[in-house]
Every structure is written in C-alpha cells, then in structure tokens.
Amino acid sequence: MIKRFSVLYVGQIDLEDVGANGRDPDDRRYTNEQLAQTYEHAMALAKQMDDSGYYCLWAAEHHFQREGYECIPNLTLLGTHLAAHTKNLKFGAAFNIVPLWHPLRLAEDFSLGDILTGGRLIFGVGRGYQTREVETFGSPLIDQDANRELFEEQVEIILKAFNEESFSHHGKHYDIPPDVPYRGYQMKEITLVPRPTHLPVEIWQPMTSGRSIEFIAKNGIKGMTALSGEKVVDQFFNTYRDAAQEAGRSLILGQDMALGFGFYIADTQEEAIEKLRPFHDERYKWFAPFGLVRYVDEEGRMWGAPGAPARTPLVEDGVQQKAWICGPPEHFVETLRYFEEKYPGLEDIVLQWPEGMPWHELSSQLEIFSKEVIPAFINRS
User: Fold this and answer.
1) Is the dihedral of CA 13, 14, 17, 18 positive or negative?
2) Could you say which DSSP state residue 26 is in?
3) Closest to 353 measured CA to CA, from 258, 223, 267, 264
4) Rounded alpha-carbon distances, angstroms, from residue 140 to 207, 288, 296
5) Would the pTM of this model clear 0.70, i.e. be above it?
6) Among 124, 125, 112, CA closest to 197
7) Residue 10's closest CA among 98, 94, 86?
8) What's the sign of the alpha-carbon dihedral 122, 76, 35, 136?
9) Which helix (H) or strand (E) holds 76?
10) Burial 206-219 (b: 16+ CB within 10 A, else e)
C-alpha cells in the first residue's frame, strides 16, 4: 500500500533553450555563480516539500558538470544543511557514488549527519555511470567487473562500520586496520567514530540494468527504479523478491522497493504531454548517451540494446510504458492505484523533477499533486 511520496532532484540549474531542437548539452557552459543556483533550488524545494507533507527529498551525487544538469557533489553535506531549515522532511542519497570515496570517510560523514539531523538522512549507494567523474577520481568504470568488485568490497566495509562496535577487514582493495604500531600495540581492529545512532541504517541502491539486484537483495539493501517502463519494473521487482527469498527474506512483491515517475499535471493527457515534451526531450538529450533509457521494445529489449530502438525516445513512448504520468489529478490517482494493486508491497513513490523544467513550474505541479493526489493515499486504515 502506497504510503509515502518523495521527489528526486538530480541538481540541475535553470536551462535555457530546452527540447529536442534546443541547445546541445555539450555546448552548455555556465559560470560558477550560475551553477550555484542548484542550492537555491534545493532550499526552495525542501521548504515547499516540508510544508506540503512530502516524505523525502532525494538528490544525486555528481561531479564536474559544467553543463548544469547534475551539480551536487556531497549529499550528506547538503542534506544536513537543508535539515536545519526544515522540520520533518527526510533527505535521501540517490545515490552516493561509492567508488569515489574511501568507504570509511563516507560512513563517517553519514554517521555525523545522522546524529546532527536526528535521523533525517537516508543512505544510498551506487556504482556510478559517468567515466568523467569515476575515472577522474582514480576508480574503474570502463572495466565494469573491476568497478563491481571494488564497490561490493566497499559496501561490505560500510556495513561493518555501521553495525559493529569494532571490526577489521582484509580484502583485495582495503586492509583495515593496517598492521601498524599504535601507542605501543599492533592494531587489530578499528571503531567508526561516530557510528550512526539510528540503527539499522536504511540503505537504498538504484536498479538501472538489473545486474546488481541479487547483491542488494542479499544484503538487505532496498531498491529504487525511476523512469522505467512497466516491463522493466516488472522484471526488477520480481527479480528482487525472488533473490530476497533465496537469501532468506520473505517479501511481498514491491516491498523494499521505490518506484519513480516523471510527471505533468494538466486538464487533459494531451495538454500535459505537450507541456512536458521539451523537458522530457532535454532529459534524454543528456542521458541517452549514457545508456539510461529504461524503456523496452515489443520483444522486451532495453532501449538501445542490440536490435532495439536506437532513436531518442519520445514522451509518448514514456507515457505509453507508464514511466511518465501525464493528465489530470484523477488519472494520477487511478494510475498509482493500478500499481498499488499490482505491487501490494509497494510503499514509496518518487516524483522526478524533469531536467529543464523551471522551478516555478515544478513548484506549481507539486502543489497540485500535494492537494489533489496525495490525500487519496494517506491516513488509510
């Protein structure tokens, strides 16, 4: 049963000349002052969400994006700051790019944020998908096997650091603690200071290709997929439930999952589609080259896979596959109830701020959603 509504903000600034025929992403260059608009947007969004009954503001970690699409390099720092200016809203990491961090530094930062915000941060982990940032920080991404191996060892260390009063770890990439003298003795274990005070730590990971689902299910990590076609969601949700069952966790379909949508509210679906079109198209001008189009063709092949469509997707494709919801509020209620029935364990819905949509337009959309959609799903017995 759906209980919570959140928003995903990847950190874009106001973008001019958006849409399929607008400015090419590689031609976008912004000043430092313009890029800092990200944090004004985040503050305005957090305050409105806090006042309107939303659950969590999810944000994305990225680096070096002079193009203005994803401009938040530290999610714990941002979430801790925003929590000081709000009352109830939670702040989620969607997602910390773990290969860019030493795992103990990431665990320390989150733990401090957990204490300072009274438990209002939600931890998230990801492997990364942009070579410019991952490889620049000295970690592998082109070599996917090496990236996965490093990431999984890092997550193992983070889980130990959160959950054990003292621990050691000796793996391929990390030797914790090193066998060195300290105050007259050889170190054999180490303690994270501080550790989170809100345990167990709730951890989320993205489901994009589906290759990490067994790993997250085995480790009790929750899964989020956003802007994915319905067939992709079916595959991810069923795979996660089955993998969790094999790991000894019996779940209802959709449990420990979050489902994200792009959206636009208008009097008719046709009007909503046309108003959304430039923002949808701007998104995929940026993301399609990374392979992040989670639609499928008639044969179930992921967009861009061998034999599947290679063109830039249209908003009609996303609406037809229920990755984007467009129409009046009652259509949103009907669509969400459809997914609620299909995935009875589903509790979390995430709305995506479409790249290119100006803040004032999103603000109006979220206000309508909070008044005309959310009340249909809260305070139910």
Assistant:
1) positive
2) G
3) 264
4) 20, 21, 28
5) yes
6) 112
7) 94
8) negative
9) helix 75-83
10) bbbebebbbebbee
Which amino acid is located at 140 in the chain?
A: P
pLDDT truncated to tens, each residue of the chain (381 aa)?
999 999 999 999 999 999 999 999 999 999 999 999 999 999 999 999 999 999 999 999 999 999 999 999 999 999 999 999 999 999 999 999 999 999 999 999 999 999 999 999 999 999 999 999 999 999 999 999 999 999 999 999 999 999 999 999 999 999 999 999 999 999 999 999 999 999 999 999 999 877 889 999 999 999 999 999 999 999 999 999 999 999 999 999 999 999 999 999 999 999 999 999 999 999 999 998 888 888 887 777 777 677 766 677 899 999 999 999 999 999 999 999 999 999 999 999 999 999 999 999 999 999 999 999 999 998 776
Domains, the chain:
4-94+207-376 (3.20.20.30)
Residue among 149, 91, 153 at smallest CA distance from 117: 91
Contact 85, 46 (CB under 8 A): yes
228: closest CA among 141, 293, 139?
293
- Rg of the chain on CA atoms, in Å: 21
3-state SS, 302-329, equals ECCCCCCCCCCCCHHHHHHCCCEEEECH
